[in-house]
Amino acid sequence: MTQRIMLVDDHAVVREGYRALLDRQPGLAVVAEAGEGAEAYRLFKQARPDLVVMDLSLPGFGGVEAIRRIRQWDGTARILVFTMHQNAAFAVQAIRAGALGYVTKSSPPEVLIGAVRDVLAGRMALSPDIDHELALSRLKETPSVAEVLSPREFEVLRLLLADKGTDDIAETLNLSPKTVANIRSQIRAKLGVQSDIALTLLALRQGISA
């Protein structure tokens, strides 16, 4: 039986390359493509793919929020993150949001194919480099951003780091400005910082960026 895949990446050339790779594999077929988080959520409900291969850096709300919304709509959705982010914090947040696998784009093609097979079979899949980063992160004495923030808070932080204001974030995430302001305050309180400048510096020290 052919397993149906949806690709989510904001670069059409990247999607084309990985579509060709996946379509060459026995029993796999790319049936839908999206270039942003909102489009991915909408197309998922239409196409109902067996697997979503999702980047995290997307226009509008990012991959973590897209994963959260897809899993909220369909708790059985199988999602594999395929991204340039090698930071353990992104992997933790993606998995908390509902992803079953995380592979970096620096990985060889066979690692991606193996992860696709594993996630389709319901198994967790991590590329070796991110597995190593996760192991190192557990040795740190200072709690990381990923450990203390929820996926929704992490997405608000990502948008703040992209220099988005409260109203812009509210529109992107379909929230009220008051809710965004409250989340912003929660993020500061959890991370023990008093200003957006301190928040930005903390995020940069931990390798978190938009």
Automatic annotation (TrEMBL):
InterPro entries with a match to the protein in the record: CheY-like_superfamily, NreC/VraR/RcsB-like_REC, Sig_transdc_resp-reg_C-effctor, Sig_transdc_resp-reg_receiver, Tscrpt_reg_LuxR_C, WalR-like
Stretches assigned to the Response regulatory domain: 4-120
Stored SMART domains: HTH_LUXR, REC
UniProt xrefs under Gene3D superfamilies: 3.40.50.2300
4-aspartylphosphate: residues carrying this PTM: D55
Swiss-Prot/TrEMBL keywords: DNA-binding, Phosphoprotein
Name of a matching Pfam family: GerE
Positions in coiled-coil regions: none
Domain HTH luxR-type: 142-207
Protein name from the UniProt record: Response regulator transcription factor
Lineage of origin: Bacteria, Pseudomonadati, Pseudomonadota, Alphaproteobacteria, Hyphomicrobiales
